Structures are given as C-alpha cells and as structure tokens.
RNA sequence: GCGGCUGUAGCUCAGCGGAUUAGAGCAUCGGUCUACGGAACCGAGGGUCGGGGGUUCGAAUCCCUCCAGCCGCACCA
C-alpha cells in the first residue's frame, strides 16, 4: 500500500504523462487544501497553452475516485482534498504499522558512512560534534530505510606528531600515560609532548627517531604507538556512549589501516598514466581545478620526501570501500573546508576508474559551531571546548529545570532524565540547522523547553503518552469511519500521513534538519489538536478516533526522534 | 585573483526542483481557559527576502553583477 503522497503523485503523473511524458506535478502539502499540485503552469508553458485550459484537461484525465477531490485555483493550481475513505484507510494502515508508512528498501544498498574521525591523543571538542551527530543520524536513517550501513571512523592515528607522542609516552611511563589518557586528559598529554618538542633538542631528536622507527615497523615503537591508539579509541567510545552515538570501536579504520595499500595507489595511478612529477612530488591534476595563479591544481599523492599525502590515504580508503566493502553509496561527513579536497579525490578516483558511476558518492559537508561572538567556539582563554564538558553542562542545566518542575522522581531518575534531555538538546540544535550553515552554540536556548528544541519535542511526546497512562485501559480504533470534523484533527492527520515523504526527502538530501522541521511542525499540530479536541472526556467512536490520533502522534514523534538518534522518554 | 559556503522579522532560523497573502521559534503586546501535564492554545505588531540588473504572465527561489562575512587554493592531516 502506497503512502498518501505516493498515491496522489502516481495519479497525477499518469495524467501529466498523457500530455507530456515525464512532467512533474510538483505535489506538496497545501494551506489552501490538503495537497496542491503546482506543475500545471510549467506544463502549460512547455505546451505553449493557457494554464487554466491545461488544468481542466489534467483534471479530466485524473483518476482519483475514493482518493481526493480536485479544484482548480488561481492561474492553474490543482487543490486536492483527500477523500474521507482514503483518510480512514491510511490511518488504519498506520495504526497497524510499526514503520508508520515508511517502506523498507526492497533492494538494500550498502552504504558506507565516514564520520566523527577524531585524532588519537587529541581531545574531542566541539569541532567533532557536528560530524559525529550528523553522521550518526544519517547512519540511523539509512538503517531504518532498510539499508546495510557500514560506519567508518577514519581516526587520525598516523603522521609525524606520533614521534613526539611516543617519546613523551616513554618519559612518563606507560602506566602513567594510560592513566592520564583513560581519564580523558588527551589534550594535556598532547600539550606536554608538544612543549618538550619545542623546548628540548634532545627530545626532538628522539621524536624524529621514533617517527622513523614507527614507519619502519620497529616492534617496540609500534607497541607504544598501539598503547596510544587503544587508549584514545577507548576514550572515544566513552564519549560516544555518553552522546548515545552508535559508532563503536569496531568501526575504527584509522589512517594507518591503509598504510600498506598506499604503494599500490601510487603504482596504479602511475600505470594508468595519471601521475605527474611536479617539483619532485607525484601528483594527479584533475581537470577543472586551479590554484591562486590560475595554474592547474595538483592532488598530491606522494610528497617530495616520498611520504604519502592524505590524498593517498583517502584514495586507498575509497578503493577499499568500493571493492572490499562493495559500497553502493558512500557518505563522507566531513567539515565544509575540505570540500575541494574531496571533489579532487572523487575526480581522481573517477579518472582512475575506481569509482564507478553507479556508486553514489558524496561529501556531506557541514558548517562550524560558533560561539556567542560569532567566531569559532572557544573558551575565553582561546582553548577549544571538550565535548564532554559541553554535555556535562547541559546535563546540569536540565537537572535544574527538572527539579523545578518535577515532583515524584528519585535523584537517579532525575539524573537519567536530565541526561536524555541534555543529549536531545545538543543533538537537536545541531541537526535542526541546515548542515552547511554555521550555527551559534547557545546552551540556554538548546535546553529550553519552549520553542523549536529537542526538549520541546520530548515533552510533546511525553504529554501524549500520559494520556494513555491516565486512560489506564486498552483501547481500539473507532468502529465506524474516521470523521475528521474539526480543522485541528484534519491538520494533525495531514501531518501524520506526511511522515514517509518527510523522512525520504530528509534522507535523500542527507539533510536531517528536514526531518527535524517536520517533527516540530507535527508537534505543533498535535498541541493545537489537543487543546481544541477533548480526548478522554469524549465518548464512543469520537474518543476512539482521538485516541488513535494521539497514539499515532506519539509514535511518529518517537520514531522520528529515534531515527535521528534522540531518545523520547515516556515521562518527564 | 580563482573557487566554495553564507547573507530572509529585533534575535535564532525554515522556505530557495519559480506560483494562490514570504513562514516558524524566541522576544514584545493582547486575549483564552474549572486546566485530559499552562513546559499550552488563539491572535497582533514587526520583513525593500544584502544592493542592482535580467529571464518569466509570475522570482526569496533561475541567470548576471556588485557588496559584506567565513572558508579553501601544492607536499599538515
């Protein structure tokens, strides 16, 4: 059974096709009716005919018996009003469907999502928030859509800084280092190493020697390096758990994972004749990229010193994902500043034939998190802010608000709820802003229960659930047909029926904020309904009908939040 | 200099596969209600959609140009 949108869209397309194959009806939710189709005007233009005339013709061709009635408005809009029997049918279907109308992909795709990617021995700070939260939402949405998701954490675990980190590890001793790292003081460790490196020549020499030893595969050096990586990954896992993010240590494929494939990348590019020696570095020049002097811009694969650039690693990873992981889709959730880099990597991969046309591959870029001064979010002292500090602060605020409002919760319950609210605050604030845009981090606004916030949605959900607690007995859908006589009921139902397309459009565009907008809109439709339409004091079929709308509202909000990675407590 | 992103109500943001009066939240102001959780609902004021041109019957949305901000532009990842 198709969703309401699909049912209408198909009928419209059939009629449009009869006049001009492939014409888009441009179907949307409407304020003037239930749905509206705006495509007639464009169609008329392409036919060189009067829009109203074409509209009449389309309406004649439309087969919408039992689905909707149509009127022509303005220059040629088709205003569609859903038929009572369709509404009834769709609502009953949703009541019976845990997926609330979202079809599971008939042919699951293998979707590789690259996200989070913190650096070993470096703190996770606000800069990692967006990539982690957005990536995880996209992972959950893809899973829910029925696809096979392979999450990849492209951790920064290689490079020259590891020389000094290992040398420092040697100095402080493994146990002390492990202790420091496991409590999450990664920055302290890094800074101490950095300070010694800058001040102490002997240390510098040891650090350099360690880099060489590490790259050369020296066993002891490798073991020490492992200690750093393992401790850091363990710490990242704690942060993910705290954030309720599904990424696990099994998803980690650090840069080092691809080390032994870099020679092949270079060799194969050379064999393909794509490699050019430029100032001693081995480069590929994909067409269409220029530098500041208007000259062709290289993707540096192998540096003059024979070390590999990160482009080589990215190419190796991409190849692995296509061949070994058999990806049908690849999503790189990485900050916007890297967009040119990824364009070039993808271009080179296509040139090399490593990225088939049928593999959808995209850089899902995101903007910065800004402080109140609209600059990169830092502490007053100019330090980056730890992710966990941010979370802890949000939990504290949520606890304060809860303790003011709540009555009969034990302290551990308050704590747990506050944690869920805090996560929702931060995640929703992040997800509800269009990805590419920078946004201002304002904890006060995020944890607020008023307005377009995570807690507001959680509250709206909890409020609906409370109706059923109060009801205290089983209920069943109305015997007779749904009679949506009030404006508020009808508006709510329109919202409920629109979940599948809101979800699909959000996923397809890799724009979680669309689903956020939908959920907030739905929550508002619900509260308007709830205010205007008594539920428990109604009786008979009317009560059954309204209970059904309540159940669907709660389920939709909970499911929508859940696929975004946000919890919906039943009570708060 | 080239390229990318951004510029919509006092503030924070949707809308940008063109279309029926440009939306929401916050803030402000005014209402509602013996209130199924008021952390609510209803309404009002508030916008030359950065400026200017163009295409179109119709542009916040498409094209050009200018302005402002952020970012990227060869061996750090």
Topology of helices and strands:
Layout: H1 4-19, E1 27-29, E2 35-37, H2 39-47, H3 51-61, E3 68-73, E4 77-82, H4 84-95, E5 110-114, H5 126-144, E6 148-152, H6 161-172, H7 174-182, H8 186-199, H9 201-216, H10 219-243, H11 262-271, E7 276-278, E8 281-284, E9 299-302, H12 310-323, E10 329-335, H13 339-352, E11 360-366, E12 369-370, H14 387-405, H15 411-431, E13 439-440, H16 443-446, H17 454-471, H18 487-497, H19 499-508, H20 512-532, H21 540-564
Parallel strand pairs: 5-6, 5-10, 10-11, 12-13
Antiparallel strand pairs: 1-2, 2-4, 3-4, 7-8, 8-9
This protein binds one RNA strand of 77 nucleotides through helix 2, strand 9, helix 13, strand 13 and helix 17.
What does this 3D model show about the protein?
- The chain has 572 residues and is an alpha/beta fold.
- Among the domains are: 4-82, Arginyl tRNA synthetase N-terminal domain (Gyrase A, domain 2); 110-155 and 254-369, Rossmann fold; 161-245, no CATH class.
- It has helices at 4-19, 39-47, 51-61, 84-95, 126-144, 161-172, 174-182, 186-199, 201-216, 219-243, 262-271, 310-323, 339-352, 387-405, 411-431, 443-446, 454-471, 487-497, 499-508, 512-532, 540-564, and strands at 27-29, 35-37, 68-73, 77-82, 110-114, 148-152, 276-278, 281-284, 299-302, 329-335, 360-366, 369-370, 439-440.
- The strands form four sheets. It has a four-stranded antiparallel sheet with strand order 1-2-4-3. The protein has a four-stranded parallel sheet with strand order 6-5-10-11, with helices on both faces. A three-stranded antiparallel sheet has the order 7-8-9.
- Helix 6 packs across helix 9, helix 12 (310-323) packs across helix 13 (339-352) and helix 17 (454-471) runs antiparallel to helix 21.
- The mean pLDDT is 91.
- The chain binds one RNA strand of 77 nucleotides through helix 2, strand 9, helix 13, strand 13 and helix 17.
């Amino acid at each position: 059974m198709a969703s309401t949108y699909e049912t209408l869209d198909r009928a419209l397309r059939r009629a449009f096709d009869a006049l001009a194959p492939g014409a888009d009806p441009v179907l949307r939710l409407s304020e003037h009716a239930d749905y509206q189709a705006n495509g007639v005007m464009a169609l008329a233009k392409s036919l060189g005919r009067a829009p109203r005339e074409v509209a009449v013709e389309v309406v004649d061709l439309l087969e919408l018996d039992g689905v909707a009635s149509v009127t022509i408005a303005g220059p040629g809009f088709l205003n569609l009003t859903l038929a009572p029997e369709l509404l009834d049918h769709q609502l009953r279907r949703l009541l019976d469907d845990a997926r609330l109308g979202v079809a599971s992909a008939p042919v699951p795709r293998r979707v590789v999502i690259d996200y989070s990617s913190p650096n070993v021995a470096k703190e996770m700070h606000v800069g990692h928030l967006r990539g982690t939260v957005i990536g995880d939402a996209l992972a959950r949405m893809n899973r829910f859509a029925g696809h096979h998701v392979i999450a990849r954490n492209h951790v920064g675990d290689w490079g020259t800084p590891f020389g000094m980190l290992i040398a420092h590890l040697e100095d402080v001793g493994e146990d002390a280092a492990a202790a420091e790292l496991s409590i999450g003081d990664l920055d302290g460790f890094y800074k101490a190493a950095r300070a010694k490196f800058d001040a102490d020549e002997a240390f510098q020499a040891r650090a350099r020697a360690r880099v060489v030893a590490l790259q050369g595969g020296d066993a002891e050096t490798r073991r020490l390096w492992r200690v750093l990586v393992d401790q850091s990954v363990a710490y990242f896992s704690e942060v993910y758990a705290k954030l309720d993010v599904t990424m696990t240590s099994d998803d980690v494929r650090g840069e080092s994972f691809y080390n032994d494939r870099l020679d092949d990348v270079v060799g194969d590019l050379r064999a393909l004749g794509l490699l050019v020696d430029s100032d001693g570095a081995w480069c590929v020049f994909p067409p269409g990229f220029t530098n500041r002097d208007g000259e062709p811009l290289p993707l540096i694969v192998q540096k003059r010193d024979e070390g590999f650039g990160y482009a080589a690693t990215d190419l190796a990873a991409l190849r692995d994902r296509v061949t070994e992981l058999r990806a049908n889709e690849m999503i790189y959730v990485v900050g916007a500043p890297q967009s040119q880099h990824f364009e070039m990597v993808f271009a080179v991969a296509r040139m090399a034939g490593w990225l088939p046309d049928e593999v959808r591959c995209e850089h899902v870029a995101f903007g910065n998190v800004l402080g109140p001064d609209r600059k990169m979010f830092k502490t007053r002292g100019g330090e980056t802010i730890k992710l966990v500090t941010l979370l802890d602060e949000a939990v504290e605020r949520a606890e304060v608000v809860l303790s003011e409002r709540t009555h009969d919760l034990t302290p551990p319950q308050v704590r747990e709820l506050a944690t869920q609210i805090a996560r929702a605050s931060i995640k929703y604030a992040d997800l509800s802003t269009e990805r590419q845009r920078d946004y201002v981090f304002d904890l006060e606004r995020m944890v607020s229960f008023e307005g377009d916030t995570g807690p507001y949605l959680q509250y709206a959900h909890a409020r609906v659930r409370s109706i059923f607690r109060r009801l205290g007995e089983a209920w069943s859908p109305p015997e007779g047909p749904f009679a949506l006589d009030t404006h508020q009921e009808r508006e709510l139902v329109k919202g409920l029926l629109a979940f599948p397309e809101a979800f699909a459009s959000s996923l397809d565009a890799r724009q979680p904020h669309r689903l956020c907008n939908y959920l907030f809109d739905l929550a508002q439709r619900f509260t308007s309904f709830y205010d205007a339409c008594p539920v428990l004091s109604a009786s008979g079929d009317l009560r059954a009908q309204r209970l059904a709308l309540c159940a669907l509202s709660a389920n939709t909000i909970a499911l929508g939040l859940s696929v975004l990675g946000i919890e919906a407590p039943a009570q708060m």
